[in-house]
Design brief:
Chains A, B: It is found in: Cytoplasm; Nucleus. Two copies of one chain form a homodimer. The first copy, chain A, is an alpha/beta fold. Helices cover 32% and strands 21% of the residues of chain A. The first copy, chain A, has two domains: 117 residues, Rossmann fold (3-Layer(aba) Sandwich); 104 residues, 3-Layer(aba) Sandwich (Rossmann fold), CATH 3.40.50. In chain A, helix 5 packs across helix 6.
Amino acid sequence: MAPWGERLAGVRGVLLDISGVLYDSGAGGGTAIAGSVEAVARLKGSRLKVRFCTNESQKSRAELVGQLRRLGFDISEGEVTAPAPAACQILKERGLRPYLLIHDGVRSEFDQIDTSNPNCVVIADAGESFSYQNMNNAFQVLMELENPVLISLGKGRYYKETSGLMLDVGPYMKALEYACGIKAEVVGKPSPEFFKSALQAIGVEAHQVVVAQACNPSTLGGRDGWITRSGDRDHPG
Amino acid sequence: MAPWGERLAGVRGVLLDISGVLYDSGAGGGTAIAGSVEAVARLKGSRLKVRFCTNESQKSRAELVGQLRRLGFDISEGEVTAPAPAACQILKERGLRPYLLIHDGVRSEFDQIDTSNPNCVVIADAGESFSYQNMNNAFQVLMELENPVLISLGKGRYYKETSGLMLDVGPYMKALEYACGIKAEVVGKPSPEFFKSALQAIGVEAHQVVVAQACNPSTLGGRDGWITRSGDRDHPG
């Protein structure tokens, strides 16, 4: 691998993950990760284009940004690429009416979506709303469809809250895939389309960007973020 | 495939599934499937050895047998091979103390099991007890273990209740497998050990038995059972 100086030549933009990179979510709005408020400020003061690229699907962008601003971050709604708005675009384009298995906090992002007589399921990090009843409702909708469509906002295994590790949407996506014998469409990371839309928003090419992403906390025994040059992997995860 | 007469020569025993073959579970104790009470009586009056072999894991054997007797079946607890007692034997043999993610109805089967300071997870068809909180508890137990052990009582995708299709334990097993990056040990069908223990109970060899098993109702659009000669497949499912 080339040395850092060489590898960073030509970099024009930065994609910043939010949970695990800027802050750890949790009770009372979570806590900023040490140094991250200052790092964002420095990046935004530099020549680099900055885009926040998150799989957060428990909150609307407005709520997420409000929370981060209260923690001291310089961030606005228009700077955030998040899976719920991307999913809404897909639903509209394809005439899909979802059964929403989502957290109440993100429901407002779907205000303009027709949810009558569902012909697909959208699943997100629903937290406590992942009840047996709600999972079974989603399952029954899918089993009634001739061509079942399951859209998953991300496929993360788990994330870290201040209180400990929490199951993310991925395990529940896998549960419905297995129950129905289908494959979900993932909107959000690691989908290449999702990264592309974030890059388009800042007018930067894939080979010109650096991605700062949370590591799997169990792997490193800590919350260390990792940074990768976009070309390093097909699908930064 | 050989004609039926020829294929049944040498058959000495019958393994009967319960849910979907003898009855459909549901409100008020479920309903017997037409002709099944008489079929069981005829089989038990014949020269064939009969064993009931179920993946039922929402009820104790005592409760299940009581329910079936009320529906008119000639069945006793000692004639039933079920996954909870098989799991208890494994837990004792291996010194495992489970976190139990199970239905309250089957908890009495685990009365003799030490559940303090868990070093494994046992998951069964927990129904409404598959809350996010309980799933997250199981997940956190597994993530704390150096060698995580997940024992699943069956791995069925779903089953039919009188009110409709219901998610079975399999999807939730898959969810925990994905979350933790592990593979569950399945106790119950289609595990060969489970079938072997049912055969041992009636002193019949695998090539001498016929298995009557519920079909996937969505596949056939009905509740038709299927009958297979044990040698037809490696793991009658």
